[in-house]
Amino acid sequence: MTGWQAVVNALKMEGIKFVYGLPSSPEDLYDDLYDESSIKAIQVRHEAAGGFMAMAEALATGLPAVCYASEGPGVMHLTAPLLEAAATCAPVIAIAPGVDALKDGKGAFQETDQVGIMKPIVKWSVKIPHPAKIPWVMHRAFYLATNGQPGPIFIELPQNVSRAVAEIPDYVPAKRYIRTMGDPSLVRQAVDIISEAKRPLIVAGGGARRSGAHDEIKALAERLGAPIMTTPSGRGIIEEDHPLAFGQVGMYRNRLGIDTYHDADLVITVGSRNEEFQTGSWTHKAEDAKLIQIDIEAFELSRNWIPDVAILGDAKLVTTSILDMITDQPQWDERKKANMEKKKALEAAVAEECKIDERPIRSKRVVYELNQVFGKNTIMVHENGSQDLWSYYSPYYKVLDRNGDIAPGEQTCMGAGVMGAVGVKLAMPDKKVVCVTGDGAFQMYNQDVPTAVQHNAPITWVILNSFSFGWPKRGQVTLGNRFIATNFEVQPDFVAMAEAYGCYGERVENPDDLQGAFQRALEANNAGQPAILDIIVDETEVGPAFVAYETAKKVK
After folding, report:
1. Do 418 and 486 belong to one domain?
2. Is residue 232, in this structure, part of any structural domain at all?
3. What Rg, from alpha-carbon coordinates, does the chain have?
4. I need a surface site. Which of 8, 11, 278, 410 has the fewest CB within 10 A?
């Protein structure tokens, strides 16, 4: 077989359903995909969009996903999505052709050191030297992408390797998600600290979610009577209508979360890197609070805060070990009731707060009303800006289903959610999929809206339109309103754009029209049509944790 036939065979045996990308030479991959009915080629308009779709598919399903780009500029367009995939620990396999090795170094057409460029971004960057080695590299790629701390892989196939006919060994699928136990003596130390804590807090990150530790995290919280907070990547570990789900950490905290984090005498982080935005530049934990850190990656332990107990192991297995060793105490029930009452009070206050009837519309009311209409069986795919941050704040928007949320990592590449939503819908067609985005992020990747139409991915984009790049503009306010390169003096008509692309489109300026607009968008989705809602919002109001972040920056 040819090299590309060997690649397609490996993808088939690994259960890959989609390849996101743009064809290069017809001899590279796509001609062989034509004959493989089990794998669908998703034609994108921009290679980066394909990378973001693969990343979001991997995060939504927990399974590896594949993208493709042509050599040179096409591969360069994948750097941003692979950077985000590394930040979110998404198992993405990026495949690309390379110049014939005999021409290497001579200035061949689109010759680029692709492996060298990708090396600091991905978990493994490799050029395949011989057709017979393709099965080994593909097996290794899927193994590394899914085991330990998951992450993206880049594979280059030079033309003389990929197009050659050769005897190629049979492909053997990779073993995925091999679990490791935690050291029992360290688990015992953790249990002793947990038993003495008066105000414990559980923080679940993306590692807990990818481990499938949902039931164990919830059981631990319920036994301890402790609140659960999550990082953006960990959101979806617990349904946020649960009375102990206190929202997210760091910049994404609600009022209750701010108080709870600072008051905790024990923080248990499970599968979290404890990065800058998730920890308020490592200031949010009270100085005298103890820390238990659980992670599958040794590099992450003690990387930032120094834990009292660091346990290397799979989140699900380690949490199970803690549950098996711990002995319930009577006072934990009272703690549980008190925390549940705090959550109930917050939800009542937010419900009242979101009745606000002002123009321009407040973004917090937008996400609250969206939640009421779309309800359960919905996956929220986030962008990250000053206004779309409101979709992160629970209970303004509550994730009502397990794994019902896809968020960027610490890189927060603009446009990742706009296009990532398409990959989520293709992989999970029975779910309602919505992306809340700012107008700036939407304009970065709106050229791939037709991809959703062409491939029958009916999602809803909710544009919080402030006619500006809101985050940097807010910073310009603190510099004396010295606005430059942030206001959109010329902006597309998003409703006309929606109609031109074959989507449902509507502009909303009155808060009383929100529910009707969301219902019409949902009806369009149910009929197989994507929807774009252009909602004119107040750019000045941001969440409480964002204000705290700004204040901390000024102090520094």
Report:
1. yes
2. yes
3. 24
4. 410
Report yes or no on 176 lying in a domain. Answer: no
Co-location of 210 and 294 in the same domain? yes
Q: Are residues 437 and 534 in the same domain?
A: yes
Q: Which residues of 208-222 are buried (b: 16+ CB within 10 A; e: fewer)?
A: bbbbbbbebbbebbe
For 429-438, how does the pLDDT look when each residue is reduced to its tens digit (9 = 90+)? 999 999 999 9
**Strand-by-strand arrangement of the 92-98 sheet:** 40-43, 18-21, 65-68, 92-98, 153-158, 124-127
Q: Are residues 460 and 328 in the same domain?
A: no
Q: What is the pLDDT of residues 303-343, one digit of tens each?
A: 989 999 999 999 999 999 999 999 999 999 999 999 999 99
Identify the domain boundary among 312, 345, 378. Answer: 345
DSSP 217: H
Helices 255-263 and 331-353: crossing angle in degrees, nearest 10, is: 150
Asked whether 241 and 398 are in contact (CB, 8 A), the reply is yes
- Give whole-number Cα distances, 70 to 76, 155, 178, 243, 539, in Å: 9, 12, 33, 49, 40
Within-domain flag for 340: yes
- Range(s) of the domain holding residue 72: 3-162
Continuous segment of H or E residues that includes residue 345: helix 331-353
| CATH code at position 535 | 3.40.50.970
- Taken as a whole, the chain contains a residue count of 556
Which three-class secondary structure string do you get for 240-258? CCCCCEEEECHHHCCHHHH
Instruction: Dump strand ranges (E) for 99-227.
Output: 124-127, 153-158, 200-204
Helix ranges (H only) for 62-120 are 73-76, 79-88, 114-118
Helix pair 544-555, 470-478: axis angle to 10 deg:
50
- Both 280 and 248 in one domain: the answer is yes
Predicted confidence at residue 131, as pLDDT, reads 96
Contact (Cβ atoms closer than 8 angstroms) between residue 7 and residue 157: yes
Domain count, the chain: 3
- Assigned token pair, 385: 């800006």
